[in-house]
Protein backbone atom coordinates (compact mmCIF):
# COMPACT_ATOMS: atom_id res chain seq x y z
CA UNK A 1 0.00 0.00 0.00
CA UNK A 2 3.08 2.24 -0.21
CA UNK A 3 5.61 3.54 2.32
CA UNK A 4 3.12 5.42 4.52
CA UNK A 5 0.44 3.50 6.45
CA UNK A 6 -1.42 6.77 6.99
CA UNK A 7 -1.43 7.65 3.28
CA UNK A 8 -1.96 4.39 1.42
CA UNK A 9 -2.31 4.14 -2.35
CA UNK A 10 -5.87 5.10 -3.29
CA UNK A 11 -6.20 2.64 -6.19
CA UNK A 12 -4.82 -0.81 -6.97
CA UNK A 13 -5.09 -2.36 -10.44
CA UNK A 14 -5.58 -6.02 -11.44
CA UNK A 15 -5.54 -7.81 -14.82
CA UNK A 16 -6.18 -11.40 -15.82
CA UNK A 17 -6.29 -13.02 -19.24
CA UNK A 18 -8.50 -16.01 -20.06
CA UNK A 19 -9.10 -17.97 -23.25
CA UNK A 20 -12.42 -18.70 -24.95
CA UNK A 21 -12.32 -21.14 -27.87
CA UNK A 22 -15.89 -20.48 -29.06
CA UNK A 23 -17.88 -17.61 -27.50
CA UNK A 24 -21.14 -18.80 -29.09
CA UNK A 25 -21.20 -21.74 -26.69
CA UNK A 26 -21.94 -19.51 -23.70
CA UNK A 27 -24.96 -17.55 -22.49
CA UNK A 28 -26.19 -15.98 -19.24
CA UNK A 29 -22.73 -14.73 -18.28
CA UNK A 30 -22.35 -13.34 -14.78
CA UNK A 31 -19.41 -11.64 -13.08
CA UNK A 32 -19.05 -12.02 -9.31
CA UNK A 33 -16.75 -9.59 -7.51
CA UNK A 34 -15.34 -9.43 -3.99
CA UNK A 35 -14.27 -5.84 -3.34
CA UNK A 36 -13.08 -3.70 -0.42
CA UNK A 37 -13.93 -0.89 -0.79
CA UNK A 38 -15.08 0.03 -4.34
CA UNK A 39 -14.57 -1.64 -7.72
CA UNK A 40 -14.81 -0.92 -11.44
CA UNK A 41 -14.61 -3.94 -13.77
CA UNK A 42 -13.57 -3.75 -17.43
CA UNK A 43 -13.81 -6.58 -19.98
CA UNK A 44 -11.64 -6.26 -23.08
CA UNK A 45 -11.36 -2.50 -22.46
CA UNK A 46 -15.08 -1.88 -21.86
CA UNK A 47 -16.44 -1.00 -18.41
CA UNK A 48 -19.09 -3.60 -17.53
CA UNK A 49 -19.69 -3.03 -13.81
CA UNK A 50 -18.98 -0.62 -10.97
CA UNK A 51 -19.92 -0.99 -7.31
CA UNK A 52 -19.58 1.41 -4.37
CA UNK A 53 -18.07 4.01 -6.69
CA UNK A 54 -19.34 7.46 -7.72
CA UNK A 55 -20.77 8.02 -11.18
CA UNK A 56 -18.87 9.81 -13.91
CA UNK A 57 -15.16 9.94 -14.66
CA UNK A 58 -12.87 8.11 -12.22
CA UNK A 59 -9.12 8.43 -11.80
CA UNK A 60 -6.38 7.13 -9.51
CA UNK A 61 -7.32 9.58 -6.72
CA UNK A 62 -11.08 8.84 -6.73
CA UNK A 63 -12.28 7.39 -3.40
CA UNK A 64 -14.89 4.65 -3.03
CA UNK A 65 -18.32 5.92 -1.99
CA UNK A 66 -18.18 4.22 1.42
CA UNK A 67 -16.06 1.88 3.51
CA UNK A 68 -16.87 -1.83 2.97
CA UNK A 69 -15.62 -4.66 5.18
CA UNK A 70 -18.08 -7.30 3.89
CA UNK A 71 -16.60 -10.46 2.43
CA UNK A 72 -19.67 -11.07 0.25
CA UNK A 73 -19.55 -11.19 -3.56
CA UNK A 74 -21.60 -8.76 -5.66
CA UNK A 75 -22.83 -9.91 -9.08
CA UNK A 76 -23.77 -8.39 -12.42
CA UNK A 77 -24.77 -9.70 -15.84
CA UNK A 78 -22.20 -9.58 -18.63
CA UNK A 79 -23.04 -8.82 -22.26
CA UNK A 80 -22.00 -12.02 -24.08
CA UNK A 81 -21.11 -10.04 -27.20
CA UNK A 82 -18.07 -8.64 -25.36
CA UNK A 83 -16.46 -12.09 -25.23
CA UNK A 84 -14.11 -12.67 -28.15
CA UNK A 85 -12.52 -15.78 -29.61
CA UNK A 86 -9.08 -16.41 -28.13
CA UNK A 87 -7.60 -14.22 -25.40
CA UNK A 88 -9.88 -12.01 -23.29
CA UNK A 89 -8.81 -9.74 -20.43
CA UNK A 90 -10.50 -8.63 -17.23
CA UNK A 91 -9.13 -5.35 -15.78
CA UNK A 92 -10.31 -4.34 -12.31
CA UNK A 93 -9.52 -1.24 -10.27
CA UNK A 94 -10.09 -1.40 -6.50
CA UNK A 95 -10.45 1.97 -4.75
CA UNK A 96 -10.01 2.69 -1.05
CA UNK A 97 -12.60 4.82 0.76
CA UNK A 98 -9.85 6.81 2.50
CA UNK A 99 -6.04 6.95 2.68
CA UNK A 100 -5.86 5.26 6.11
CA UNK A 101 -8.01 2.24 5.17
CA UNK A 102 -6.95 -0.83 7.12
CA UNK A 103 -7.50 -3.43 4.40
CA UNK A 104 -8.10 -4.25 0.76
CA UNK A 105 -9.76 -7.37 -0.70
CA UNK A 106 -10.32 -8.52 -4.26
CA UNK A 107 -11.48 -11.67 -6.04
CA UNK A 108 -13.57 -12.30 -9.18
CA UNK A 109 -15.26 -15.16 -11.00
CA UNK A 110 -17.03 -15.38 -14.36
CA UNK A 111 -19.77 -18.00 -14.80
CA UNK A 112 -21.94 -18.93 -17.79
CA UNK A 113 -24.43 -21.46 -19.10
CA UNK A 114 -23.12 -23.76 -21.84
CA UNK A 115 -25.01 -24.08 -25.12
CA UNK A 116 -24.72 -27.66 -26.40
CA UNK A 117 -25.71 -26.97 -30.00
CA UNK A 118 -22.10 -27.31 -31.10
CA UNK A 119 -20.79 -30.75 -31.99
CA UNK A 120 -17.39 -30.94 -30.28
CA UNK A 121 -14.41 -28.82 -29.32
CA UNK A 122 -11.26 -28.88 -27.12
CA UNK A 123 -9.31 -26.24 -25.24
CA UNK A 124 -6.46 -26.08 -22.74
CA UNK A 125 -7.47 -25.12 -19.21
CA UNK A 126 -3.89 -24.96 -17.96
CA UNK A 127 -1.32 -23.46 -18.03
CA UNK A 128 -2.66 -19.92 -18.34
CA UNK A 129 -1.82 -17.97 -21.52
CA UNK A 130 1.27 -15.83 -21.01
CA UNK A 131 2.32 -17.63 -17.83
CA UNK A 132 6.01 -17.55 -16.91
CA UNK A 133 7.59 -20.44 -14.98
CA UNK A 134 11.01 -20.50 -13.36
CA UNK A 135 13.09 -23.55 -14.19
CA UNK A 136 13.48 -26.26 -13.13
CA UNK A 137 9.79 -27.12 -13.06
CA UNK A 138 7.21 -29.68 -14.11
CA UNK A 139 4.16 -28.35 -15.96
CA UNK A 140 0.74 -30.00 -15.88
CA UNK A 141 -1.11 -29.56 -19.16
CA UNK A 142 -4.89 -29.91 -18.72
CA UNK A 143 -7.50 -30.02 -21.45
CA UNK A 144 -11.28 -29.92 -21.56
CA UNK A 145 -12.86 -31.79 -24.49
CA UNK A 146 -16.63 -31.58 -25.08
CA UNK A 147 -18.70 -33.58 -27.56
CA UNK A 148 -22.48 -33.89 -28.03
CA UNK A 149 -22.60 -36.88 -30.37
CA UNK A 150 -20.16 -39.79 -30.07
CA UNK A 151 -17.08 -39.70 -27.88
CA UNK A 152 -13.43 -38.75 -27.74
CA UNK A 153 -10.99 -41.64 -27.63
CA UNK A 154 -8.01 -39.59 -26.41
CA UNK A 155 -6.46 -36.12 -26.16
CA UNK A 156 -2.94 -35.51 -27.46
CA UNK A 157 -0.73 -32.71 -26.09
CA UNK A 158 1.72 -30.74 -28.26
CA UNK A 159 4.52 -28.20 -27.86
CA UNK A 160 4.55 -26.57 -31.28
CA UNK A 161 4.63 -29.46 -33.75
CA UNK A 162 6.18 -31.89 -31.25
CA UNK A 163 3.79 -34.36 -29.62
CA UNK A 164 4.46 -34.57 -25.89
CA UNK A 165 2.06 -37.36 -24.96
CA UNK A 166 -1.61 -38.21 -24.62
CA UNK A 167 -4.34 -39.13 -22.15
CA UNK A 168 -7.10 -41.64 -22.96
CA UNK A 169 -9.59 -40.67 -20.26
CA UNK A 170 -11.05 -37.50 -18.81
CA UNK A 171 -9.92 -35.43 -17.04
CA UNK A 172 -7.25 -35.08 -19.73
CA UNK A 173 -3.82 -34.23 -18.31
CA UNK A 174 -0.17 -34.58 -19.17
CA UNK A 175 2.89 -33.69 -17.07
CA UNK A 176 5.71 -32.00 -19.00
CA UNK A 177 8.88 -32.75 -17.03
CA UNK A 178 11.59 -30.07 -16.82
CA UNK A 179 10.82 -28.18 -20.07
CA UNK A 180 13.63 -26.27 -21.75
CA UNK A 181 14.25 -22.54 -21.27
CA UNK A 182 12.40 -20.18 -23.58
CA UNK A 183 9.02 -19.79 -25.26
CA UNK A 184 6.63 -22.72 -25.69
CA UNK A 185 3.40 -22.91 -27.71
CA UNK A 186 1.14 -25.55 -26.20
CA UNK A 187 -1.99 -27.09 -27.71
CA UNK A 188 -4.26 -30.10 -27.36
CA UNK A 189 -5.82 -32.31 -30.06
CA UNK A 190 -8.95 -34.32 -29.22
CA UNK A 191 -9.57 -37.40 -31.40
CA UNK A 192 -13.12 -38.70 -31.89
CA UNK A 193 -14.07 -42.36 -32.21
CA UNK A 194 -14.48 -41.68 -35.94
CA UNK A 195 -10.94 -40.38 -36.24
CA UNK A 196 -11.88 -36.70 -36.50
CA UNK A 197 -9.25 -34.46 -34.90
CA UNK A 198 -10.10 -31.16 -33.18
CA UNK A 199 -7.25 -28.78 -32.20
CA UNK A 200 -7.40 -26.30 -29.33
CA UNK A 201 -6.32 -22.66 -29.61
CA UNK A 202 -2.59 -22.33 -28.82
CA UNK A 203 -1.41 -21.24 -25.39
CA UNK A 204 1.93 -19.42 -25.23
CA UNK A 205 4.03 -19.71 -22.08
CA UNK A 206 7.64 -19.03 -21.11
CA UNK A 207 10.08 -21.07 -19.06
CA UNK A 208 12.66 -18.72 -17.56
CA UNK A 209 16.06 -19.57 -16.20
CA UNK A 210 16.07 -19.85 -12.42
CA UNK A 211 16.54 -16.57 -10.64
CA UNK A 212 19.95 -16.37 -9.07
CA UNK A 213 20.22 -14.87 -5.58
CA UNK A 214 21.07 -11.17 -5.67
CA UNK A 215 24.71 -10.22 -5.46
CA UNK A 216 26.15 -7.46 -3.30
CA UNK A 217 27.96 -4.66 -5.12
CA UNK A 218 30.15 -2.00 -3.54
CA UNK A 219 29.63 1.14 -5.58
CA UNK A 220 31.49 3.48 -3.21
CA UNK A 221 33.70 1.85 -0.55
CA UNK A 222 34.46 3.44 2.83
CA UNK A 223 37.72 5.34 2.59
CA UNK A 224 37.12 6.27 -1.07
CA UNK A 225 38.80 9.34 -2.55
CA UNK A 226 36.58 12.43 -2.59
CA UNK A 227 37.00 15.84 -4.16
CA UNK A 228 36.19 18.62 -1.72
CA UNK A 229 35.81 22.38 -1.47
CA UNK A 230 36.44 24.31 1.75
CA UNK A 231 36.05 28.03 1.19
CA UNK A 232 34.61 31.21 2.64
CA UNK A 233 31.83 31.06 0.04
CA UNK A 234 29.59 28.48 -1.62
CA UNK A 235 30.33 26.83 -4.99
CA UNK A 236 28.09 27.40 -8.01
CA UNK A 237 24.48 26.33 -7.51
CA UNK A 238 25.02 23.47 -9.98
CA UNK A 239 27.71 21.84 -7.83
CA UNK A 240 25.63 18.66 -7.09
CA UNK A 241 24.93 18.05 -10.80
CA UNK A 242 26.50 15.21 -12.75
CA UNK A 243 27.84 17.67 -15.33
CA UNK A 244 29.57 19.97 -12.82
CA UNK A 245 33.33 20.25 -13.38
CA UNK A 246 35.09 19.63 -10.07
CA UNK A 247 38.55 19.05 -11.57
CA UNK A 248 39.93 22.12 -9.79
CA UNK A 249 38.86 20.84 -6.36
CA UNK A 250 41.54 19.10 -4.23
CA UNK A 251 40.99 15.45 -3.39
CA UNK A 252 41.92 12.92 -0.76
CA UNK A 253 40.84 9.61 0.76
CA UNK A 254 38.19 9.48 3.47
CA UNK A 255 37.82 9.92 6.34
CA UNK A 256 38.17 13.67 5.73
CA UNK A 257 38.19 16.22 8.56
CA UNK A 258 40.04 18.91 10.46
CA UNK A 259 42.71 16.51 11.72
CA UNK A 260 41.58 16.06 15.29
CA UNK A 261 40.88 12.35 14.86
CA UNK A 262 43.73 11.11 12.69
CA UNK A 263 41.86 11.53 9.40
CA UNK A 264 43.88 10.53 6.29
CA UNK A 265 42.86 13.79 4.61
CA UNK A 266 43.04 17.01 6.62
CA UNK A 267 40.90 19.91 5.42
CA UNK A 268 41.57 23.55 6.22
CA UNK A 269 38.17 24.57 7.58
CA UNK A 270 38.99 28.21 8.16
CA UNK A 271 40.00 30.08 11.36
CA UNK A 272 39.33 28.15 14.58
CA UNK A 273 37.02 30.82 15.93
CA UNK A 274 35.12 31.26 12.65
CA UNK A 275 34.99 27.99 10.75
CA UNK A 276 33.54 27.67 7.27
CA UNK A 277 29.92 26.64 7.97
CA UNK A 278 29.76 24.15 5.08
CA UNK A 279 32.26 21.85 3.35
CA UNK A 280 31.35 20.26 -0.03
CA UNK A 281 32.30 16.79 -1.28
CA UNK A 282 31.88 14.97 -4.63
CA UNK A 283 32.66 11.41 -5.76
CA UNK A 284 32.02 9.79 -9.17
CA UNK A 285 31.32 6.08 -9.57
CA UNK A 286 30.27 3.76 -12.41
CA UNK A 287 27.17 1.57 -12.73
CA UNK A 288 27.18 -0.89 -15.62
CA UNK A 289 23.61 -2.18 -15.26
CA UNK A 290 21.40 0.16 -13.22
CA UNK A 291 18.20 -1.76 -14.06
CA UNK A 292 19.58 -4.81 -12.22
CA UNK A 293 20.01 -2.95 -8.93
CA UNK A 294 17.11 -3.61 -6.58
CA UNK A 295 18.21 -1.69 -3.46
CA UNK A 296 20.82 0.79 -2.24
CA UNK A 297 22.29 1.07 1.26
CA UNK A 298 24.17 4.22 2.25
CA UNK A 299 26.44 4.45 5.31
CA UNK A 300 27.28 8.00 6.40
CA UNK A 301 29.68 9.59 8.85
CA UNK A 302 28.89 13.26 9.37
CA UNK A 303 29.86 15.84 11.96
CA UNK A 304 27.56 17.64 12.33
CA UNK A 305 24.77 17.56 9.65
CA UNK A 306 24.67 16.49 6.00
CA UNK A 307 22.62 16.75 2.81
CA UNK A 308 23.27 14.06 0.16
CA UNK A 309 22.55 14.33 -3.58
CA UNK A 310 22.64 11.60 -6.24
CA UNK A 311 23.10 12.83 -9.81
CA UNK A 312 21.89 16.27 -8.77
CA UNK A 313 18.75 15.20 -6.86
CA UNK A 314 18.55 15.39 -3.06
CA UNK A 315 18.14 11.88 -1.65
CA UNK A 316 18.92 12.36 2.05
CA UNK A 317 19.35 14.98 4.74
CA UNK A 318 20.36 14.16 8.30
CA UNK A 319 20.54 16.43 11.37
CA UNK A 320 19.58 19.36 9.17
CA UNK A 321 16.55 21.70 9.26
CA UNK A 322 13.72 21.44 6.73
CA UNK A 323 13.35 23.88 3.85
CA UNK A 324 15.97 25.53 1.67
CA UNK A 325 19.60 24.90 2.60
CA UNK A 326 22.28 27.57 2.08
CA UNK A 327 26.02 27.80 2.67
CA UNK A 328 25.37 29.56 6.00
CA UNK A 329 22.75 27.07 7.25
CA UNK A 330 23.88 25.39 10.48
CA UNK A 331 23.21 21.79 11.46
CA UNK A 332 20.29 21.22 13.82
CA UNK A 333 22.54 20.04 16.65
CA UNK A 334 26.07 18.98 17.40
CA UNK A 335 26.75 15.36 16.43
CA UNK A 336 26.50 13.30 19.62
CA UNK A 337 29.24 10.89 18.53
CA UNK A 338 31.45 13.51 16.82
CA UNK A 339 30.94 11.57 13.56
CA UNK A 340 32.73 8.48 14.87
CA UNK A 341 30.18 5.92 13.65
CA UNK A 342 28.43 5.20 10.37
CA UNK A 343 24.67 5.85 10.19
CA UNK A 344 22.64 3.62 7.88
CA UNK A 345 20.07 4.77 5.27
CA UNK A 346 18.18 3.17 2.37
CA UNK A 347 17.95 4.86 -1.03
CA UNK A 348 15.79 4.21 -4.06
CA UNK A 349 17.91 3.05 -7.05
CA UNK A 350 15.71 4.82 -9.62
CA UNK A 351 18.13 7.78 -9.94
CA UNK A 352 21.06 5.58 -10.97
CA UNK A 353 22.07 5.83 -14.60
CA UNK A 354 24.19 3.69 -16.88
CA UNK A 355 27.81 4.78 -16.76
CA UNK A 356 29.05 7.63 -14.57
CA UNK A 357 27.08 8.68 -11.48
CA UNK A 358 27.97 11.30 -8.85
CA UNK A 359 27.34 11.50 -5.13
CA UNK A 360 27.52 15.07 -3.79
CA UNK A 361 27.45 15.75 -0.05
CA UNK A 362 27.44 19.00 1.90
CA UNK A 363 28.48 18.72 5.57
CA UNK A 364 27.32 21.56 7.84
CA UNK A 365 28.75 22.64 11.19
CA UNK A 366 26.42 23.20 14.14
CA UNK A 367 28.44 26.25 15.24
CA UNK A 368 31.09 28.46 13.64
CA UNK A 369 33.62 27.69 16.38
CA UNK A 370 33.27 23.91 15.95
CA UNK A 371 36.53 22.13 16.69
CA UNK A 372 36.06 19.19 14.37
CA UNK A 373 34.59 17.85 11.15
CA UNK A 374 34.26 14.24 10.03
CA UNK A 375 33.06 12.82 6.73
CA UNK A 376 33.04 9.38 5.11
CA UNK A 377 30.43 7.55 3.04
CA UNK A 378 29.92 4.15 1.50
CA UNK A 379 27.26 2.99 -0.97
CA UNK A 380 26.42 -0.67 -1.53
CA UNK A 381 23.77 -2.31 -3.69
CA UNK A 382 21.93 -5.56 -4.16
CA UNK A 383 21.63 -6.54 -7.81
CA UNK A 384 19.85 -9.37 -9.59
CA UNK A 385 22.13 -11.57 -11.66
CA UNK A 386 19.59 -13.13 -14.00
CA UNK A 387 18.82 -10.22 -16.31
CA UNK A 388 18.60 -11.40 -19.88
CA UNK A 389 21.47 -10.63 -22.20
CA UNK A 390 20.47 -7.75 -24.42
CA UNK A 391 21.07 -4.29 -25.84
CA UNK A 392 18.67 -1.35 -25.69
CA UNK A 393 18.91 1.97 -27.54
CA UNK A 394 17.59 4.49 -24.99
CA UNK A 395 18.27 7.83 -26.73
CA UNK A 396 16.83 9.13 -28.99
CA UNK A 397 13.49 7.67 -27.96
CA UNK A 398 11.16 5.89 -30.36
CA UNK A 399 9.39 8.49 -32.53
CA UNK A 400 11.74 11.34 -31.55
CA UNK A 401 12.27 14.32 -33.85
CA UNK A 402 15.72 15.92 -34.12
CA UNK A 403 16.39 19.36 -35.56
CA UNK A 404 19.65 20.09 -37.42
CA UNK A 405 22.30 21.29 -37.16
CA UNK A 406 22.44 20.39 -33.46
CA UNK A 407 21.71 16.70 -33.95
CA UNK A 408 21.63 14.55 -30.85
CA UNK A 409 23.44 12.18 -28.53
CA UNK A 410 23.04 8.44 -29.02
CA UNK A 411 22.93 6.35 -25.85
CA UNK A 412 22.37 2.65 -25.25
CA UNK A 413 22.36 0.20 -22.36
CA UNK A 414 23.46 -3.41 -22.52
CA UNK A 415 23.73 -6.55 -20.41
CA UNK A 416 26.41 -9.01 -21.45
CA UNK A 417 25.30 -11.71 -19.02
CA UNK A 418 27.30 -14.01 -16.78
CA UNK A 419 30.77 -12.71 -16.00
CA UNK A 420 31.22 -10.94 -19.33
CA UNK A 421 31.92 -7.23 -19.58
CA UNK A 422 31.06 -4.65 -22.25
CA UNK A 423 33.78 -3.49 -24.65
CA UNK A 424 32.25 -1.29 -27.37
CA UNK A 425 28.95 0.12 -28.60
CA UNK A 426 28.47 0.64 -32.35
CA UNK A 427 25.65 2.86 -33.61
CA UNK A 428 24.00 2.48 -37.02
CA UNK A 429 21.59 4.65 -39.01
CA UNK A 430 19.71 2.80 -41.74
CA UNK A 431 22.30 0.02 -41.55
CA UNK A 432 25.29 2.37 -42.00
CA UNK A 433 27.78 2.73 -39.14
CA UNK A 434 27.64 6.20 -37.57
CA UNK A 435 30.41 5.63 -35.06
CA UNK A 436 31.55 3.62 -32.05
CA UNK A 437 31.77 4.45 -28.35
CA UNK A 438 34.04 2.95 -25.72
CA UNK A 439 33.44 5.56 -23.00
CA UNK A 440 31.97 4.47 -19.68
CA UNK A 441 28.45 5.64 -20.58
CA UNK A 442 28.60 4.33 -24.19
CA UNK A 443 27.27 7.61 -25.58
CA UNK A 444 28.06 9.02 -29.03
CA UNK A 445 27.52 12.53 -30.38
CA UNK A 446 25.67 12.65 -33.72
CA UNK A 447 26.11 16.16 -35.11
CA UNK A 448 24.45 17.30 -38.34
CA UNK A 449 22.41 14.13 -39.03
CA UNK A 450 20.88 13.99 -42.53
CA UNK A 451 17.25 14.99 -42.82
CA UNK A 452 14.42 12.49 -43.16
CA UNK A 453 13.25 9.30 -41.48
CA UNK A 454 15.93 7.01 -40.04
CA UNK A 455 16.06 3.64 -38.32
CA UNK A 456 18.69 3.55 -35.57
CA UNK A 457 20.21 0.44 -33.98
CA UNK A 458 22.97 -0.20 -31.48
CA UNK A 459 25.28 -3.21 -31.42
CA UNK A 460 27.25 -3.98 -28.26
CA UNK A 461 30.41 -6.09 -28.30
CA UNK A 462 31.15 -8.02 -25.11
CA UNK A 463 34.52 -8.83 -23.61
CA UNK A 464 34.55 -12.23 -25.33
CA UNK A 465 33.97 -10.71 -28.79
CA UNK A 466 30.28 -11.63 -29.03
CA UNK A 467 27.70 -9.06 -30.07
CA UNK A 468 24.05 -8.20 -29.36
CA UNK A 469 21.89 -5.93 -31.53
CA UNK A 470 19.19 -3.66 -30.12
CA UNK A 471 15.65 -3.40 -31.38
CA UNK A 472 15.31 -0.67 -34.04
CA UNK A 473 14.28 2.85 -33.04
CA UNK A 474 12.50 5.02 -35.61
CA UNK A 475 13.24 8.76 -35.58
CA UNK A 476 12.84 11.77 -37.85
CA UNK A 477 15.45 14.43 -38.55
CA UNK A 478 13.97 17.69 -39.79
CA UNK A 479 15.43 18.70 -43.15
CA UNK A 480 17.52 21.88 -43.28
CA UNK A 481 16.26 24.75 -45.47
CA UNK A 482 16.66 23.89 -49.14
CA UNK A 483 19.51 25.61 -51.03
CA UNK A 484 20.81 25.50 -54.61
CA UNK A 485 24.49 25.68 -55.51
CA UNK A 486 24.58 28.23 -58.39
CA UNK A 487 28.34 27.95 -58.66
CA UNK A 488 30.19 25.04 -57.09
CA UNK A 489 33.81 24.49 -56.27
CA UNK A 490 35.51 22.73 -59.15
CA UNK A 491 33.29 24.28 -61.88
CA UNK A 492 34.72 25.17 -65.31
CA UNK A 493 35.84 28.78 -65.78
CA UNK A 494 36.83 30.72 -68.90
CA UNK A 495 40.08 32.58 -68.39
CA UNK A 496 42.47 35.03 -70.12
CA UNK A 497 46.11 34.52 -69.08
CA UNK A 498 48.04 36.24 -71.92
CA UNK A 499 48.97 39.34 -69.91
CA UNK A 500 46.67 41.64 -71.96
CA UNK A 501 44.71 44.52 -70.46
CA UNK A 502 41.01 43.65 -70.80
CA UNK A 503 39.85 47.10 -69.80
CA UNK A 504 36.37 47.31 -68.25
CA UNK A 505 33.93 45.72 -70.73
CA UNK A 506 35.07 42.17 -69.91
CA UNK A 507 32.89 42.06 -66.77
CA UNK A 508 29.65 42.67 -68.70
CA UNK A 509 26.97 40.04 -69.11
CA UNK A 510 27.06 40.19 -72.92
CA UNK A 511 30.86 40.22 -73.26
CA UNK A 512 32.00 37.54 -75.70
CA UNK A 513 34.59 35.32 -74.01
CA UNK A 514 34.31 32.50 -76.58
CA UNK A 515 37.99 32.86 -77.53
CA UNK A 516 39.21 32.57 -73.94
CA UNK A 517 40.68 29.30 -72.65
CA UNK A 518 38.62 27.21 -70.20
CA UNK A 519 39.28 24.68 -67.47
CA UNK A 520 37.94 23.34 -64.18
CA UNK A 521 38.91 24.95 -60.90
CA UNK A 522 41.16 25.08 -59.03
CA UNK A 523 42.97 27.32 -61.54
CA UNK A 524 46.38 28.87 -61.04
CA UNK A 525 50.07 28.07 -61.05
CA UNK A 526 52.63 27.18 -58.45
CA UNK A 527 52.26 23.40 -58.37
CA UNK A 528 50.35 23.20 -55.08
CA UNK A 529 47.07 21.60 -56.10
CA UNK A 530 45.84 23.28 -59.30
CA UNK A 531 43.57 21.28 -61.61
CA UNK A 532 44.03 23.80 -64.46
CA UNK A 533 47.39 25.54 -64.83
CA UNK A 534 47.29 29.08 -66.21
CA UNK A 535 50.19 30.90 -67.84
CA UNK A 536 52.23 33.63 -66.21
CA UNK A 537 54.04 34.49 -69.44
CA UNK A 538 57.51 33.66 -70.66
CA UNK A 539 59.54 35.39 -67.94
CA UNK A 540 59.38 33.88 -64.43
CA UNK A 541 60.92 37.06 -63.08
CA UNK A 542 58.33 39.28 -64.79
CA UNK A 543 55.00 37.47 -64.56
CA UNK A 544 51.67 38.77 -65.88
CA UNK A 545 50.23 41.22 -63.39
CA UNK A 546 46.54 40.26 -63.86
CA UNK A 547 44.65 37.14 -64.94
CA UNK A 548 40.92 37.29 -65.79
CA UNK A 549 38.23 34.64 -65.01
CA UNK A 550 34.54 34.41 -66.07
Tell me about this structure.
The protein has 550 residues and is an all-beta fold. The chain is built from no helices and 42 strands. The strands form ten sheets. Strands 9, 11, 12, 14, 15 and 16 form a six-stranded mixed beta sheet that branches. Strands 17, 20, 21, 23, 26 and 28 form a six-stranded mixed beta sheet that branches. A hairpin with a 4-residue loop joins strand 14 and strand 15. The radius of gyration is 37 Å and the shape is flat. The N and C termini lie far apart (82 Å). The mean pLDDT is 88.
The backbone outline, from C-alpha atoms, is flat
Q: Main β-sheet, in a few words?
A: 6 strands, mixed
Euclidean distance between termini CA atoms = 82 Å
Overall pLDDT, averaged? 88
In short:
The protein is mainly β and about 550 residues long.
Secondary structure layout plus pairing:
Elements: E1 11-20, E2 26-36, E3 38-43, E4 46-51, E5 74-77, E6 86-95, E7 105-114, E8 120-126, E9 132-134, E10 138-147, E11 152-159, E12 162-167, E13 172-177, E14 182-192, E15 197-199, E16 203-208, E17 215-220, E18 225-229, E19 251-253, E20 256-257, E21 265-266, E22 278-287, E23 293-303, E24 305-310, E25 313-318, E26 343-347, E27 355-364, E28 374-383, E29 390-395, E30 401-402, E31 408-415, E32 422-429, E33 432-437, E34 443-446, E35 452-462, E36 467-469, E37 473-477, E38 492-496, E39 517-520, E40 523-524, E41 532-533, E42 548-549
Parallel strand pairs: 9-16, 20-21, 30-37, 40-41
Antiparallel strand pairs: 1-6, 2-5, 2-7, 3-4, 3-6, 8-10, 10-13, 11-12, 11-14, 14-15, 14-16, 17-28, 18-19, 18-22, 20-28, 22-27, 23-26, 23-28, 24-25, 24-27, 29-31, 31-34, 32-33, 32-35, 35-36, 35-37, 38-39, 38-42
Amino acid sequence: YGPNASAKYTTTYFRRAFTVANPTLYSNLSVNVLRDDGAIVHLNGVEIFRNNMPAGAVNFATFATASVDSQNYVSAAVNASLIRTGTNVFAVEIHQSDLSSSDISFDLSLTADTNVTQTHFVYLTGPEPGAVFAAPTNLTLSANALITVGSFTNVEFFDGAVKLGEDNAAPYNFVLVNPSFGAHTLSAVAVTSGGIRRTSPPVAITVAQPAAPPVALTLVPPGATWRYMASASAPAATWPALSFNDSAWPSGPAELGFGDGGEPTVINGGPAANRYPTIYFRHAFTVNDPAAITSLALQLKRDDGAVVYLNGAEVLRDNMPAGAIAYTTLATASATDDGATFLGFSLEPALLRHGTNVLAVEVHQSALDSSDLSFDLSLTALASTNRARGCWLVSPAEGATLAPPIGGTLAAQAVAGGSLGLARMDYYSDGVLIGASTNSSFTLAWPNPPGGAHVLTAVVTDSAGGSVTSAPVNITVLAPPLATALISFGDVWNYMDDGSNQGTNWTGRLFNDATWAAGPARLGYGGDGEVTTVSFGTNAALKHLTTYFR
